[in-house]
Amino acid sequence: MTASRVVVLVSGGGTNLQSLLDAERAGTLGDAAVVGVVSNRPGVRALERAAAAGVPTRVLDHRAFADRAAFDAALRAEVEALGADLVVLAGFMRVLTEGFLAGFVDRVINIHPSLLPAFPGVRGPAQALQYGVKISGCTVHFVDAGLDTGAVIAQAAVPVRDDDTEETLAARILVEEHRLLPAAVADLAGARLRREGRRVHRVP
Ligand code: GRF
Known about the structure:
By secondary structure, the protein is α/β, with parallel strands linked by helices. The chain has helices spanning 15-26, 45-52, 68-81, 98-101, 124-131, 166-189, and strands spanning 4-10, 32-39, 57-59, 86-89, 108-112, 135-142, 152-159, 193-196, 199-202.
């Protein structure tokens, strides 16, 4: 059995974190268990969700660090201390550098609210509406040092409606995120995925 200690990095509401906690409780997260939550912002709802589930939390306020390298080094130490096998960025609004990523090769994933490589960065749903695409969605991908540029693990499509606003489109995409992310974590924990270059395959 492949056990996976999952540490989730958050910055805000934490509904994706909640989807992982709910999946774990429902027995659908496979061999994965959420063992810690780290936020770069104090007082966010995601920390309350973790505490309510009995998961240890840490706050590393990025504003208290001299630069990105110092923050990433401290974050890496925290995540290593929590014994992470897999690091999940769930609404974590900081770009990570090699100083962090080198400690967790192929073990950091992110959930993003667009069909990458379209609309990376902030406000994916707003960018999709602005561009006028008819289909958007969400992507789970490995994290590299770029902005939402790592190899794609899983995607789900969400049709754009003529009367969509940023809020309504984001809300429908979020529903798919909450399904896609726990499934990807379960697959990774069960060693059912293999990355070859940019392509991630299901192991037969
Ligand atoms: C999600 O749309 C996620 O894809 C994006 O930020 C949002 C965070 O939502 N990166 P939550 O904090 O998980 O509720």
